[in-house]
Specification:
The protein is α+β, with helices and mostly antiparallel strands. It is built from one helix and four strands. The longest helix is centred in the last third of the chain and has 26 residues.
Length: about 70
């Protein structure tokens, strides 16, 4: 089993998407639409859910780099 960070995002405006983002330690990402239970591509994200994805992705990359710097320093 891979370590991952899981975040849920529910849009406050239409189309009211309910998404689960799974950021895996090896860099993989899974986005699941909780209503249709389908996997969503980052290219399909727009508006607030896209902003959420970008902010979390950047934070994940920063944390990963910081951990690697500490490990190999």
């Amino acid at each position: 089993m891979h370590n991952c960070e899981i975040f849920r995002f529910i849009e406050k405006h239409r189309p009211f998407r309910d998404l689960t983002f799974k950021f895996y330690a090896d860099g993989r990402l899974t986005i699941i639409d909780n209503v249709s239970e389908e996997v969503v591509s980052p290219r399909e994200l727009k508006g607030a859910c896209h902003d959420f994805y970008v902010r979390k992705r950047i934070a994940f990359i920063k944390n990963d780099l910081a951990a690697k710097c500490m490990k190999y320093a």
